[in-house]
Amino acid sequence: MSTTPSTIAPPSAANAAKPARRIPWMLLAVITVLAVLALAASYWFFVGRFVETTDDAYVGGDVTVMSPKVNGFVTDVLVRDNQFVHANQVLIRLDARDYDARLAQASAEVESAQAAVTELQAKKSLQLATINEQAAEVRASGAELTRSTADQARYRELVKDDAVSNQVVERADADLTKAHAAVDRSSAALIAAQRQIAVLDAQIGDAQARIATAQAAQRVAALNVEYTTIRSPIDGYVGNRTARVGLLANVGVSLLTVVPSSGLWIDANFKEDQLKKMHVGDGVDVDLDASSKRIHGVVESLAPATGATFSVLPAENATGNFTKIVQRVPVRVRLEVPKDMEGVLRPGLSATVKVHLDAAHG
């Protein structure tokens, strides 16, 4: 079977033009890819290699758990969940009647101890007067002894000349003996009175010690009364409130939590190989998952150990089945929060953190 030239159709003009149009499109695609790669390389060279990023970051804050220091029934709950409170604002009151009674008892013991000291000081004043009286008696008996001694000597001389009888001399001897006895008696009484002062001083010291003990108990009782009123230590928001009127609150049991409204930070967990050029003072950009606004900050500190080191069960790598795992180190970021963002930040919120490495550090 043969074919004639007239049966073979020439290639159409459309088919001949297809390769010519395909080449510019392919060239454009290649140029676009190269441009994107060039831009990416430029970004990495000028920006990217000076930035470390992590999304393992969370807002932190000094969240305060409010728990009572004394046991008691809750009589008043003065705040609601999520309410903003100021520092020193009263949050909860406990039944203070038992503690008021203990304070009154402690105050009475202080007054009793003070009265005992006053009584002892009055006794000391009276004893000092007695000492003065005994001292006067000693002086009087001494004067009598001097007179009796002189009389005896004079009568003994007179009896030699028969100027007086022996009876007079004997009476003078007896008077002298009595004078000696009176001096001894008054001197002993004076010494006893003086020693009584030392006894009273010791009793006063003991009573003053009882005052100090009673005053310490009074201060403790006053503190316990004060502890029945629970106040907010900071400005913040109330959360996790479990306190209810009539609840028996025990020491150390959480009644509510106060979350700070300011002074928050970011704890960003970076891989250990991201810390090579990171330093305190590096600038930080923070993007919260809960907000579209970016917050700026600076690196405040780097943790002294990895997060695993501070865990309850630290990793034990001295085994035969060791598998290396890249560790993460917490980095504390101090935030520069604008006023309109203070109500947005909440401890625990997730964030993406970018640290701009300072090239000056090398």
Automatic annotation (TrEMBL):
Residue stretches making up the p-hydroxybenzoic acid efflux pump subunit AaeA-like beta-barrel domain: 265-356
Gene Ontology biological process: transmembrane transport
TM spans (from-to): 25-46
Keywords recorded for this protein, A-Z: Coiled coil, Membrane, Transmembrane, Transmembrane helix
Key word Cell membrane present: no
Pfam entry (one): Beta-barrel_AAEA
Location of the Multidrug resistance protein MdtA-like barrel-sandwich hybrid domain: 66-257
Coiled-coil intervals, chain numbering: 96-123
Protein name, entry field: Colistin resistance protein EmrA
Gene that encodes it: emrA_3
